Amino acid sequence: MKKNQFLLASAGSGKTTYLVKLALQSEGNILITTFTEQNKEEILNKIKELNNEIIPLNITVQTWFSFLIQHGAKPYQGCLTERDITGMQLVNSPSGLKYINRNNRPVYYSEADVDNHYFTKDYRIYSDKLAKFVVKCNTLNKNAVIDRISSIYSHILVDEVQDLAGYDLEIIKLLFNSDSIIILAGDPRQVTYLTHFSKKNKKYQNGNIKFFIQDVCNKKKEICYIDEKSLKDSWRNSQEICDIANKVFPDFPSSKCLHDKVSEHQGIYLVRNKDINMYLKAYNPVQLRDSLSKQVNSNFAVFNFGASKGKTFDRVLIYPTVDMIKWIKDSSTPLKFQTQCKLYVALTRAIFSVGIVCDETLNISGIKQYNP
């Protein structure tokens, strides 16, 4: 096996299972890290499922932010500040605002003003500055941060790596050059969350980590092997679902169905608004929507597109956005990247069938009309 690997995965390919099996088979102390708490819990549940309900003592599972605070920021915070970090402040927009100028543009605290650039008043580090702080500490301490991490963990496995951005990618690059074995797995078509939005490495932000590895990390020599084949097919979706999902990102390797499960109601269906309740009662699909503002039948399970990532259901009913409907009518219609990701995630949650709410009667290959 190559030392460092990036596994480009498809939805339903079993990437989390792959990483967990690798962790259980490996010697030394193993870290499995991922972006969200939800993904962390799924990893822990998968370890228990495959290891008689036991989490081995040599395997640590934690979120990316927790990992950076515990092993990156706190041990070396003294090189930048005399105060203690009290926690993290999650932000969804650029942090460290100083004031709004006369042209109504934001002005931010400079990096030299450590207290205000990186921290809130109660000294919680901003989530969009955490990785940057860790990289700065590592530089000032002559790579001691990365050396310490690699002395603790022989293997570092990163699940849902497509969610990392900005300075997080710099940390990945540093880890590649450490003594630890680094295994990344992710599906660039499922970027429904990002650790932060940053000018740093911006062109690699929308699921383009493959190109970050190619252009930056492997520029002088191959330090990370890119595997686009091992996890390209789906153990989850029926072939009808794979065929439609493949069209959302046509430049990616096509997935095929690896299982032989069948159902009397299988495939992709257009469901008229007037037939929604009948369809729900007949097949009990999980409803998927773009946001809470979309009204659905509260008697049946529902998730937002982003929150459904990583989950598997027998059937789903999608409430598409206007742009998604345009794409369904003509798959050559361009979609914004985030809309592409949401549609791909929604389509690939189901094993057997996908219903799509649409009042138009369309003649599209691979999609049937639901007629109760």
UniProtKB/TrEMBL annotation:
Keyword Cytoplasm: no
A matching Pfam family: UvrD-helicase
Record key words, sorted: ATP-binding, Helicase, Hydrolase, Nucleotide-binding
Stretches assigned to the UvrD-like helicase ATP-binding domain: 3-56, 133-193
GO-annotated molecular function: 3'-5' DNA helicase activity; ATP binding; DNA binding; hydrolase activity
Swiss-Prot/TrEMBL GO biological process terms: recombinational repair
Name this protein carries in UniProt: UvrD-helicase domain-containing protein
Species the sequence originates in: Bacillus paralicheniformis
